[in-house]
Amino acid sequence: MCLIIALVIIAVVFAAFFLITLGTVLALVPWLVVGLIAGWAASAITESKHGILGDIVIGWAGSIVGGVLYTILTHQRVGGLFSLTHLLVAIAGSVVLLLAVKTVTGKA
Description:
About 85% of the residues lie in helices and about 0% in strands. It contains three helices and no strands. The chain has helices at about 1-45, 50-75, 85-105.
């Protein structure tokens, strides 16, 4: 009887862990998509190549930079994750970030 109770408890804990992990991963998917689109667009605009992972990281960082600049300039927050405003701000921030890196490193 104790073995059955222990197995049930283990199964419940495993199921909860699995659902929490799945929820976390699924919550990151939109951020990956926006980061990839923004990073890819910025790389195309600045004519630099970074690969898929580089584009995602550049898009994430550009989203933060663009969001801060947008908030400072307009005194408003950027819209939702999949809004056109957020995507354009992320692309603009990514371009600013890449141009700043190119200026500092001296690479054309």
